[in-house]
Design goal:
Oligomer: single chain
Helix content: over 70%
Largest sheet: none
Structural class: mainly alpha
Radius of gyration: 22 Å
InterPro entries: AcrZ (IPR019702), MEP_Accessory_AcrZ (IPR053730)
Keywords: Antibiotic resistance, Cell membrane, Membrane, Transmembrane, Transmembrane helix, Transport
Function: AcrA-AcrB-AcrZ-TolC is a drug efflux protein complex with a broad substrate specificity. This protein binds to AcrB and is required for efflux of some but not all substrates, suggesting it may influence the specificity of drug export.
Organism: Brenneria rubrifaciens
Distance between the termini: 70 Å
Number of strands: 0
GO molecular function: xenobiotic transmembrane transporter activity
């Protein structure tokens, strides 16, 4: 019975930890790909698009 309770507490404790790791990985990968997407663009492209409207 004690082993069942300890494994249950371990599982309950690990759920938010794993969620934080997964969300952090998603956020980190988004930041990395955002940097990659900005490499091919210059700052002038966004300004000219706004002026043409």
């Amino acid at each position: 019975m004690w082993e069942l309770l300890t494994s249950l507490l371990f599982a309950v404790a690990m759920v938010p930890v794993m969620m934080a790791i997964i969300l952090g990985a998603i956020y980190g990968l988004g930041a990395v790909f955002n940097v990659f997407s900005k490499i091919g663009h210059t700052d002038g492209d966004g300004q000219t698009a706004k002026k043409s409207h």
